[in-house]
Design brief:
Rossmann fold, 4 helices, 27% helix, two-stranded antiparallel sheet, binds adenosine-5'-triphosphate, binds ligand FFO, alpha/beta, seven-stranded mixed beta sheet
Length: 196
């Protein structure tokens, strides 16, 4: 299983890195439009995104629009290696310059920004399938967070369409702790999981 996951991660990363910057920018705009049309957060919901790294689909344009609509916006705070592996979320003012460096080259809102519990979030990933399963970098941070919050949290995978792992190829290699996402949004549209 560890080998299958590592192979699928490497493939996801390679595919993502092959996307030219201009195409990546267009994909982010397309995915943003899909969310606003097909799966916008309910009015007033606290929304969370992520600060993109390693070629991830950029949720920035979407977060800016949601902030304009009055949604409080949050970003994840990755725990240091010597702390429990629990992801937390802090309110973000939308200013990239306000972010502080975190573990694994992440960036997060600074200490002192309020801790919030998002109702709705965009989840980064390396690979996904039509069952709503996702593959992350292997920290298990989102798995734990989604398990702790249960179905009250709307968790939308946010990724390039080329990151899909077809079910015909076996889909995402998954284990009992992997939690399916509510839905997946890509530059090609929304995918509502088929529960197989
Ligand atoms: N943009 C973004 N923010 C995020 C996540 C994410 O996937 N994307 N996370 C999602 O959980 C959390 C951070 N978790 C991460 C875990 C590992 C690596 C990473 O780059 N790992 C390297 C190994 C680094 C090492 O061992 O020193 C790797 O995969 O090669 C990055 C983020 C919270 N913030
Ligand atoms: N709910 C959970 N409770 C305890 N441990 C968990 C839970 N979910 C995942 N883990 C542990 O986290 C580790 C990484 O899991 P996995 O390979 O599925 O990560 P991932 O989904 O790729 O990463 P991430 O969620 O950070 O993006 C595994 O060792 C797994 O046992």
């Amino acid at each position: 299983m560890a080998v299958r996951k590592a192979e699928a991660r490497a493939k996801g990363l390679t595919r993502r890195r092959a996307i030219p910057p201009e195409d990546a920018r267009k994909a982010a705009e397309a995915a943003c439009a899909v969310v606003l049309r097909d799966a916008p957060p309910p009015p007033g919901a606290i929304v969370a995104g992520y600060w993109p790294m390693r070629g991830e689909l950029d949720p920035g344009p979407l977060l800016a629009i949601l902030a304009e609509r009055g949604h409080p916006v949050a970003l994840p705070v990755t725990p240091p290696a010597d702390a429990p592996p629990c992801l937390r979320f802090r309110r973000w003012d939308g200013n990239p310059a306000s972010l502080a460096p975190g573990p694994f080259k992440t960036r997060h809102p600074p200490e002192g920004a309020p801790d919030v519990q998002p109702d709705w979030m965009l989840v980064p990933l390396l690979g996904f399938d039509r069952r709503g399963q996702r593959l992350g970098y292997g920290g298990g941070f989102y798995d734990r967070y989604l398990a702790a919050r249960g179905p009250a949290l709307t968790a939308l995978g946010f990724a390039f369409a080329v990151q899909e792992i077809p079910l015909a190829d076996g889909g995402v290699p998954c284990e009992p702790h992997d939690r399916p996402l509510t839905a997946l949004v890509t530059d090609a549209g929304i995918i509502r999981p088929e529960r197989l």
